[in-house]
Amino acid sequence: MSPRLLATVALLPLLLAALPAAAQEAATPDATLLDEVVVTASRIETPRSAIAATVEIIDAEAIVQQTALAASAVDTVAALAPSFSPTRQKLSGFGETLRGRSPLYLVDGVPQSTPLRDDSRDGYTIDPFFIDRVEVIFGSNAIQGIGATGGVVNYVTARKPSEAEGLTGRMMAQVTTDDELQGDGVGAKIAAIGGRDFGAFDLTLGAAFETRGAYYDADGSRVGFDGAQGEVQDSQAVSLLARGGWDLGGDRRLEGWVNRFDLEGDGDYVTVAGDRATGVPTTAVRGAAPGRQPSNAVTSAALSYTDRDLFGGVLRAQVFAHDYQGVFGGGSFPDFQDPRIAPVGTLFDQSANNSEKLGFKIDWQGQVPGLTGLKALVGLDGLRDRTYQELVLTGRNWVPETAYESLSPFLQLNQSALAGRLSLSAGVRHESAKLKVDDFQTLYAYGPQTVAGGEPGFEETLFNVGAAFEVTPALLVYGSFAQGFTMPDVGRVLRGINRPNQDVDTFLNVEPVVSDNTEVGVEYRGARVELSAAVFRSEAERGSLLNRLPSGIFEVQRQATRIDGLELKGLWRATDALTLGGSYAALDGQSDSDGDGDLDRDLNGANISPDRLLLWGEYETGPIALRLQAQTYLARDFDGEPAANGFEGYTVLDAVARYEAGFGTVSLGVQNLLDEQYISYFSDTQGPTDNLRYFAGRGRTATVTLTRSF
Question: Is the pLDDT of residue 15 over 60?
Answer without folding.
Answer: no
